[in-house]
Design a protein that fits this description.
The structure holds 2 protein chains of 2 kinds. Helices cover about 20% and strands about 25% of the residues of chain A. By secondary structure, chain A is α/β, with parallel strands linked by helices. In chain A, the strands form 3 sheets. In chain A, strands 1-12-7-4-2-3 form a 6-stranded parallel sheet. Chain A has a 4-stranded mixed sheet with strand order 8-5-6-9. In chain A, strands 10-11 form a two-stranded antiparallel sheet. The longest helix of chain A is centred in the N-terminal third of the chain and has 12 residues. In chain B, the strands form 2 sheets. A 6-stranded parallel sheet of chain B has the order 1-10-7-4-2-3, with helices on both faces. In chain B, strands 8-5-6-9 form a 4-stranded mixed sheet. In chain B, a hairpin with a 4-residue loop joins strand 5 and strand 6. In chain B, helix 3 crosses helix 12 and helix 16 runs parallel beside helix 18. The chains are: A alpha/beta, B alpha/beta. Chains A and B meet through helix 1, helix 4, helix 5, strand 9 and strand 10 of A and helix 2, helix 3, helix 4, strand 1 and helix 8 of B. The structure holds iron/sulfur cluster. Iron/sulfur cluster binds next to helix 14 of chain B. Chain B: It comes from Micromonospora ureilytica. Chain B: This is L-lactate dehydrogenase complex protein LldF.
């Protein structure tokens, strides 16, 4: 008998008492009723030591500090307006060693969750593949305000499970030494979030 | 309909080589260790309480989490078949392992097939349980732990002592000493600042991440309807391992299943807050089979029984399979705080280890563990999936071939630890080197020859100048509960 069939048979035998069906109570909150989601997101992001900037106008100043920048191939042109440093588009794909040589990466995201200060990347538009936001030491992430939801259950309605998903809450951190939080172990040591309005809307 | 194949118990690092009271003695006598443990568990307890208090629907989330897991257990065979079909359709290869040895053989064979003689590892309880590192080493394959705490433990040639913070028993000076002794590229002037130690680990592992060809992980969750695996972590070592190598092998206990992708909305709220006391851990990775051009292109999942079918077969003990390894129960347990993780012998320490390990091995092979508890119930209160650990402990005690010494010792210990006043008295008596704890047993049992105090006091009375812990600290802690 194969291991598969044997394990399945063992488990079926183990359930010989036929446990009754289970009703899952879903009384937890599914929608956030907070008045200002953006303020909540900013508060959580900063609590996790991400640096938050407001408006697309913040980008040129931020990128001005970056000599060598990695970007996914489909990064919107207006994000790079006036960038004078070395631009490395991820096509053909940059090797891990090449990525390790760059100063920062600039991407968008799929969803941001205010309740937990979490940014979710799904390899969709302006995000590129996973290695891109992992190896460079500084991640500059543009979040559109229409990508912000309140609670985790709201985020799940927007995600495609087949896409590789990376959830980021603040920069890489460890608490393994006497439970002191230290930022930046293997992931990017700096996370900078630029909050922008959706295209076509007014204001920042 | 009859099923001819009986559920089977497991093997690997889930057995206590010594009875719990014996194994606990060195920890109880080690004041440095006890101070490290006390500070750490107290800190995590406070953080957890704070972030749980800010969630208005916490109890509703626990109820949902508990019910989803009960549903998984009831439908485990069909959900596993569904997971296999979804993951396979997404480009992963699914393997099945009856026990620890079979799981190790599969990982060794896959690593060899990839032509690699080293693997990078994401922290995983399942791979520790099956003693994968030892099996890889025996096969000539080097296994590198990449989680900072696991790295400390591996370099120190030690074993983990906590589910979440495996190096909880070390302080910064001890960690620096291990790095200087065993990490070849550690700076000569390495300080014991946490930031400096973390930086040394970063430099040490960077090259390895960028060149690794095979990674081995576990999974916090495996989703049946989509075939998705989930790894929750903080440092980014997980992302490195799960993203850069060509081949990814994930070792997953069969109980890790969730029915639907959406069910993650419950568990990703329960786990980080219960575990590290954060609203969300810094990184969570989810992948479903292979994504062309992004991440590992050769993806394997090894589904492991190793005793889980035996746990499932016991209707009272079955909910132990709901455990999401958050470690909240360790951090509130008065016995864990005194005895430390190593005393439990198994990779699963603390209250959950006291029930899960004997269930996985069969109670006869771990007979002292169900007594490693005061039955105070703190573990049940914090458990995000509402596992009634005290109830299962009592149930297992009834099945255990009662080891008389442990039973008597643990009964007294449990009686003492249940009351702060009795604990304080026990410490005073221990200091005096004699006393009513023994007398208490004499009255109760009619034995007149008892000279030594029962454990843990015995460890302190053996030598007069063993430093005693401050009773104040315990009372302070107790008062806060
Ligand atoms: S038994 Fe509950 S509290 Fe303990 S580790 Fe498992 S899920 Fe967490």
């Amino acid at each position: 008998m194969s291991a598969r069939d044997e394990i399945l048979a063992r488990l079926r035998t183990a359930l010989a008492d036929s446990p009754p069906p289970v009703q899952v109570p879903r009384g937890y909150r599914r929608v956030d009723d907070r008045p200002d989601l953006i303020a909540a997101l900013v508060d959580r992001l900063e609590d996790y030591r991400a640096v938050v900037h407001h408006g697309i106008g913040a980008l040129p100043r931020l990128l001005g500090e970056v000599d060598r920048l990695a970007v996914p191939t489909d990064v919107p042109a207006d994000w790079l307006a006036g960038y004078a440093g070395q631009l490395h588009r991820d096509a053909p794909p940059l090797s891990p060693a090449a990525l390790d040589d760059l100063d920062a990466v600039l991407t968008g995201c799929a969803v941001a969750v205010a309740d937990t200060g979490t940014i979710i990347l799904d390899a969709g538009p302006a995000q590129g593949r996973r290695a891109l936001t992992l190896v460079p030491d500084r991640h500059i992430c543009v979040v559109r305000t229409d990508q912000v939801v309140g609670l985790l259950p709201e985020a799940f309605t927007r995600l495609d499970p087949r896409a590789p998903l990376t959830w980021i809450s603040g920069p890489s951190a460890t608490s393994d030494i006497e439970l002191n939080r230290v930022e930046g172990v293997h992931g990017p040591r700096r996370l900078e979030v630029v909050l922008i309005s959706p295209p076509g809307s007014s204001g920042a | 309909m009859s099923h001819p194949v009986a559920p089977a118990t497991g093997s690997g690092r889930i057995r206590t080589p010594l009875p719990f009271p014996t194994a606990a003695k060195p920890a109880v006598a080690d004041t440095q260790l006890r101070a490290n443990l006390h500070r750490a568990t107290r800190t995590i307890r406070a953080k957890r309480a704070r972030v749980v208090d800010e969630v208005p629907d916490w109890e509703a989330l626990r109820d949902a989490g508990s019910a989803i897991k009960a549903d998984v257990q009831r439908r485990l065979p069909e959900l596993l078949e569904q997971f296999e079909a979804s993951a396979t359709a997404a480009g992963a290869t699914v393997h099945w392992a009856r026990d620890a040895a079979e799981a190790c053989r599969i990982v060794v064979a896959l690593t060899r097939a990839a032509g690699a003689d080293e693997v990078v590892k994401v922290k995983s309880m399942a791979t520790q349980e099956i003693e994968l590192n030892e099996a890889l080493e025996a096969a000539g394959i080097a296994a590198y732990e990449t989680d900072l705490a696991e790295l400390i433990v591996q370099l120190g040639e030690d074993t983990p002592s906590h589910i979440l913070v495996p190096a909880i028993h070390y302080n910064r000076a001890q960690i620096r000493e291990i790095f200087q002794r065993r990490m070849s590229d550690a700076p000569a002037d390495l300080s014991d600042e946490p930031a400096a130690l973390a930086e040394a680990a970063r430099v040490h592992l960077r090259r390895r991440f960028l060149s690794a060809r095979v990674a081995v992980s576990g999974a916090n969750f495996a989703v049946a309807d989509t075939g998705t695996l989930v790894v929750v972590e903080s440092e980014g070592n997980g992302r490195m391992c799960l993203t850069l190598p060509e081949t990814l092998i994930s070792v997953v206990g069969v109980e890790k299943l969730l029915p639907t992708f959406t069910d993650l909305e419950v568990f990703l709220q329960l786990l980080p807050r219960s575990s590290t006391g954060e609203r969300m851990n810094p990184y969570t990775s989810m992948w479903t089979g292979v994504t062309p051009g992004d991440g590992p292109q050769d993806v394997h999942v090894v589904l492991v029984d190793n005793g889980r079918s035996a746990v499932l077969a016991d209707p009272v003990g079955r909910p132990a399979l709901s455990c999401i390894r958050c470690s909240a129960c360790l951090n509130v347990c008065p016995v864990y705080e005194r005895a430390g993780g190593h005393a439990y012998g198994s990779v699963y320490p603390g209250p959950i280890g006291a029930i899960l390990s004997p269930q996985l091995t069969g109670v006869a092979d771990n007979a002292s563990l169900p007594y490693a508890s005061t039955l105070c119930g703190a573990c049940y209160d914090v458990c995000p999936v509402k596992i009634n650990i005290p109830e299962i402990l009592v149930h297992l005690r009834q099945q255990a071939p009662h080891p008389p010494a442990e039973r008597a010792t643990m009964r007294v210990l449990s009686w003492v630890m249940r009351s702060p006043r009795r604990w304080a008295v026990a410490l005073r008596l221990a200091r005096a080197g004699a006393g009513p704890l023994g007398a208490y047993r004499e009255r109760r049992t009619g034995a007149r020859t008892l000279r030594r105090l029962p454990w843990p006091a015995s460890a302190w009375t053996r030598s007069r100048d063993l430093p005693l812990p401050a009773p104040q600290t315990f009372r302070e802690w107790w008062g806060k509960q």
